[in-house]
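Tokens for chain A. Residues wanted.
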């Protein structure tokens, strides 16, 4: 998908919101989102292989070993803390112009009902 340049620039200039959630909730969310990969460990390991350039062979091989062992919660935890969090920090700081003004949204869970409630609250005039 290619995002039109004008829309991309509007996103870069838009208000920022940092969603904060406990690590366990983030792990649960990742496991739900990765259900298709968990069902196909070989494909999961192939996708992880693409991260070698960014993280190195040793780290990716460790993640792949977790896939092979079916250690899904442990894998999700290391992916959140060693891959996603650093990537979001790097990406957000240079991409979004108003990130310093961003506000925090703390959520106890990231299940569909919690996310829908947060979306309703943000869409309301008081949100």
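Reply:
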């Amino acid at each position: 998908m290619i995002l039109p340049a004008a829309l991309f620039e509007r996103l870069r200039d838009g208000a920022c919101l940092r969603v904060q959630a406990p690590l366990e909730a983030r792990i649960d969310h990742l496991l739900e989102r990765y259900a298709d990969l968990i069902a196909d460990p070989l494909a999961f390991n192939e996708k992880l292989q693409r991260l070698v350039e960014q993280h190195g062979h040793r780290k990716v091989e460790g993640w792949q070993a977790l896939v092979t062992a079916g250690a899904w919660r442990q894998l999700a935890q290391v992916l959140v803390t060693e891959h996603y969090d650093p990537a979001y920090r790097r990406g957000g700081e240079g991409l979004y112009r108003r990130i310093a003004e961003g506000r925090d949204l703390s959520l106890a869970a990231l299940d569909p009902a919690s996310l829908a409630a947060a979306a309703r609250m943000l869409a309301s005039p008081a949100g």
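The longest helix spans residues 72-95. The two ends are 30 Å apart (CA to CA).
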